[in-house]
Amino acid sequence: MSFTDLFIRRPILSVTLSLLILLTGIAALFALPMRQYPKMESATIVVDTRFPGATQEVMQGFVTTPIAQAIVGRGEKPDR
């Protein structure tokens, strides 16, 4: 007697087992916690730079842009 013969000869057993598996799956679906979006923390970085006598263009080109690129990871990493 093979495994399938049991279910062929006893159709009520196969229907009952199928319903049991279905109900267990539905119960598990509602019992599992689901979040649509994971918790994320946004980081805020504040950098204060001073360059006395420099114009706005010099600050933007030589100070602010390299710092911003290093923070987001696009610039070259400094040697440590």
From TrEMBL:
Pfam families tied to this protein: ACR_tran
Transmembrane segment boundaries: 12-32
Gene3D superfamilies assigned: Multidrug efflux transporter AcrB pore domain, Multidrug efflux transporter AcrB transmembrane domain
InterPro entries: Acrflvin-R
Keyword terms of this UniProt record: Membrane, Transmembrane, Transmembrane helix
Protein name: AcrB/AcrD/AcrF family protein
Superkingdom of this protein's organism: Bacteria
